[in-house]
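In the laboratory, one determines a bound structure by crystallizing the protein with its ligand and collecting diffraction data. In a computational setting the workflow is compressed into a single prediction: the sequence and the ligand go in, and a structural description comes out. We illustrate the idea with fe (iii) ion.
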Amino acid sequence: MEKRSLEELDIRSWDETFDAAVQNKMTEALEGGKILYFPSLSFSLSPQELLLLDPEKMSPKSKNISFDLRSNGLQGMQCTQEEEEVMRAMIKRFAISSRKLLDALIPHYQSSVIQAKTSFRPVEIFGRKSSYRKDDTRLHVDSFPSNPVKGQRIMRVFTNINPNGQPRVWRAGEPFKDVVEKIAPRVSNPIPGVNHLLKLLKITKSLRTPYDHYMLQIHDEMKRDMNYQQTVPQEEIQFPPGSSWIVFTDLVSHAAMSGQHVLEQTFYLPAKGQKHPEYSPLATLERYFNRQLI
Ligand code: SIN
Ligand code: FE
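The predicted complex, in structure-token form:
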């Protein structure tokens, strides 16, 4: 599979070590907007864990099951205590494995990367109903309405654990600077004081910066515009079960079209912690708007 969005690496273990040439190549590719793709990196499950690949184990209100390595907390399940412990152990093992891989592959991030939530996503994406803003089958860059990142990068590690041979199908869109050139001229500027109101009303967990405002506007406008969705240069990528990938989802325009049962680890990284802060969405937007945004 020759795909312009992918940088492929053939590894088979989450405990791999890498030489400097590979580390450099992968760091450049990731920061340059590629998806690091590991076609043979699978995450093995025990027979007990396999029994939990079932959306019925989820509480009806949840979109996925989430785990926080910092508190050991698990959210979004509706099942027996025993099942909950099996699920916790599975997600925790993935959290630790993905951190190990990241530290070995991109040691540059080790001192400033923040490990955020880990999720298990057992719901089939195809045919899922949602408002256009929440519809991840439309191309977008990630931005969180209630959780301002203040310029920090959003990086995610995924592994497809589907037991039925079903791939996770994504689309990857145009480079971030092209997204900005097309979409940013149409977005509104932040209205002074509104960010304080949003925080007061607990709509946001902390103060939304101008950076968060523009990223959210770009996210929404990309998803709203069906003509953009259909006509923008894009390619389809199929991630088969037993494969894994790492991507800056705030930089790479992506859409998840179909698939079921993926594990995902989110990391935050201060833009200053990258090898090339000038490639960050923050730097690109600050150049475009010609002002400081955090
Ligand atoms: C997304 O970030 O848009 C969803 C990715 C996925 O669950 O495959
Ligand atoms: Fe996304």
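The domain at 6-281 is CATH 2.60.120 (Jelly Rolls). Keep in mind that any predicted model is a hypothesis to be tested, not a measurement.
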